[in-house]
TrEMBL record:
Membrane topology (UniProt): Peripheral membrane protein
Subcellular location: Cell membrane
A Pfam short name: ABC_tran
Keywords carried by this UniProt record: Amino-acid transport, ATP-binding, Cell inner membrane, Cell membrane, Membrane, Nucleotide-binding, Transport
An annotated Gene Ontology molecular function: ATP binding
Superkingdom of origin: Bacteria
Protein name: Amino acid ABC transporter ATP-binding protein
Database matches in Gene3D superfamilies: P-loop containing nucleotide triphosphate hydrolases
Family to which this protein belongs: Belongs to the ABC transporter superfamily.
Major place of residence: membrane
Sequence ranges assigned to domain ABC transporter in this UniProt record: 20-256
Length: 288
């Protein structure tokens, strides 16, 4: 369990300004409502997990934060930038320089080596000197335990290795925050731990992270705040310790009871899952 500053209510007059703020966000696909009045804050240095059943709007929230989806109403701010009002591709790219996004699927360029996957965006989008970008890429690969894979191609890597490359690629842009969208759900169980270790150390180093995850024990361990969503509504939110140990909503109680039981069964069937093996990562997305 993280031991950090307590969860701060935005109702407090002296509350710090959030890095990410959503207010009364509504989004529908045609006649199908997906988000129904989302209010959510993420403060700099926090790890925030969004949990809930499939189809509850979790991933849609992340896509709204980074401007990939536009709500019909409500406001979305990232460090003072009104994401819901971005009107040009130039503005969207400027936002995505600051917001890393790691998807469930790795989205690596298959025709580029691992090293080139990490170097392309910093050089082309940020205008960074190629030599310094290459040096930084090697540092990141070493820190995710893939130093020997710099010249491999994505197709030569396991799923867990590809996901770690995707995280390193996001870090290469030196974003203000990183969004993780169920990044372990496509992995075999034995590969989950190696990816969670990387995220765990990012959180320990103070990287601002928002995670959509079904890994409940991991979310409880690393999160400062947790939001439980269902049917496009935030049913409950608060400090991780309180939400996981003393959930107020009967719906949250039922979801966690079922999810934690399923997770325990899965771990008992597969003893090869590695959960705790921390590595050291410095702070440093998004290939546009």
């Amino acid at each position: 369990m993280r031991s950090v500053e307590p969860f701060v209510s935005t109702a407090a007059n002296d509350a710090p300004r959030p890095l990410v703020s959503l207010r009364d966000v509504h989004l529908s696909f045609g006649a199908n409502p997906v988000l129904n009045g989302i209010d959510l804050d993420v403060f700099r240095g926090q790890a925030v997990s969004i949990i809930g059943p499939s189809g509850s709007g979790k991933s849609t929230i992340l896509r709204c934060i980074t401007g990939l989806l536009k709500p019909q109403s409500g406001t979305i701010e990232v460090d003072g930038t009104r994401v819901d009002r971005l009107a040009s591709e130039h503005d969207e790219i400027a936002l995505r320089k600051r917001v890393g996004f790691v998807f469930q699927q790795y989205n690596l360029f298959p025709h580029l080596s691992v090293l080139d996957n990490l170097v392309a965006a910093p050089v082309r989008i940020l205008g960074r000197d190629k030599k310094s970008a290459i040096r930084h890429a090697h540092e990141l690969l070493a820190r995710v335990r893939l130093a020997d894979k710099a010249h491999a191609y994505p197709g030569q890597l396991s799923g867990g290795q590809q996901q770690r490359v995707a995280i390193a690629r996001a870090l290469a842009m030196q974003p203000d925050l990183i969004l993780f969208d169920e990044v372990t759900s496509a992995l075999d169980p034995e590969m989950v731990g190696e990816v969670l270790n990387v995220i765990r150390d990012l959180v320990r180093d103070g990287m601002t992270c928002v995670l959509v995850t079904h890994e409940m024990r991991f979310a409880e361990e690393v999160s400062d705040a947790v939001f439980f969503t269902e049917a496009g509504v935030i049913v409950e939110h608060g400090p991780a310790a309180r939400v996981f140990r003393e959930p107020a909503s009967p719906r949250t109680q039922a979801f966690l009871a079922r999810s934690l039981a399923v997770g325990s069964d899965a771990r008992s069937r597969d003893s090869s899952v590695v959960v705790h093996a921390p590595i050291k990562l410095d702070l440093s997305k998004f290939a546009v």
